């Protein structure tokens, strides 16, 4: 069986690695891939852009690919699944209608309201004056969100009315292009964030282990928002009782309302949640794909073959699959970024020490890297993440940081406090 993975992040490297683990998948092709997927045994890169649907379809047909896994939200929102399915190619990932759950925050909010899914109270605006009047009336703190996909930069948690007004002005001023011509303004929730990635075949929905991400660039959760600087799983914040509530109050109603709307959603539904001080789970956002770096801590703990789960989703037979099996232990991931990320950063720095880092049993999931004849070079903001499994969080993080200390590139930056919520040793 051959599988085609679309994307080029650490998430896609982890997906490819996991798909190859059981031996049933003989080959993974990653497009466009990165330095990690280029050098992973039985994996190769294909130089097609994630939006080149025709090229991807042709490759899948000619090479008899069993199914396509779509990593990032952009191609999903642009309809890659619809395009491939029309040509009878099996895809893990929702169609264009389903992907709206991430691609339009206003649409997702309306869906949540209709299904009585707990979330922050919100109002939607199509013009600046009305949005600003609303913010003045509500006061701060308040959250301003561009409706559409904005590469993780569309959300402002405003501590003052002035900051909220500036965010509104930026959105309507065109900072996010078409993605910002509608703005969602919502109540600012407090509590602890957790990511629950669930897999679904459109009828049955099952959560994977809960994970905690670290969105801010700086230690103590300060500074700009990023794609994610580290993660751990399973997040102790989500007890079995809390997971049951998430299943009953959020995941099941979400898949039921999607089905009611005629949307046949097969793939990952990622619930970004806030556990409020009162202990209630509320949805901050839904994503239509695996999280990055959450995937890099959830998949190493998964014992059930990933291809079995994906095929069950594609064939709408998830209910027939036995309960997912997990390895014991905890998994920690620390991301190393290029200095300057998430703003301006340099590319092309040689990376050393990956083999040494992996010799201790850690996994190095590459993201912004490129395999060149002269060696591995940096090629993006988030360069790589080191994941390690341990008996507890102290052990897992100790190993991840020890492995990371073997790696070097010019301008390498990482947070030293990933997992601060769960570590006793720092
Ligand atoms: P997003 O780009 O939607 O992932 O949002 C980025 C971050 O903004 C989230 O991870 C939260 O930390 C924060 N955020 C979004 N919505 C809210 C909200 N309603 N209340 C508090 N924080 C929020
Ligand atoms: N780590 C956050 C995300 O994947 O959206």
From TrEMBL:
Catalytic activity: 5-phospho-beta-D-ribosylamine + glycine + ATP = N(1)-(5-phospho-beta-D-ribosyl)glycinamide + ADP + phosphate + H(+)
Segments forming domain ATP-grasp: 109-315
UniProt feature coiled coil, ranges: none
Classification via InterPro entries: ATP-grasp, ATP_grasp_subdomain_1, PreATP-grasp_dom_sf, PRibGlycinamid_synth_ATP-grasp, PRibGlycinamide_synth, PRibGlycinamide_synth_C-dom, PRibGlycinamide_synth_C_sf, PRibGlycinamide_synth_CS
Alphabetical keyword list: ATP-binding, Ligase, Manganese, Metal-binding, Nucleotide-binding, Purine biosynthesis
Biological processes per GO annotation: 'de novo' IMP biosynthetic process; purine nucleobase biosynthetic process
Enzyme class: ligase
GO molecular function, one term: metal ion binding
Pathway connected to this protein: Purine metabolism; IMP biosynthesis via de novo pathway; N(1)-(5-phospho-D-ribosyl)glycinamide from 5-phospho-alpha-D-ribose 1-diphosphate: step 2/2
Enzyme Commission designation: 6.3.4.13
SMART domains noted in UniProt: GARS_A, GARS_C
Cofactor (UniProt): Mg(2+); Mn(2+)
Family, per entry: Belongs to the GARS family.
Protein name: Phosphoribosylamine--glycine ligase
Organism expressing this protein natively: Oscillatoriales cyanobacterium SpSt-418
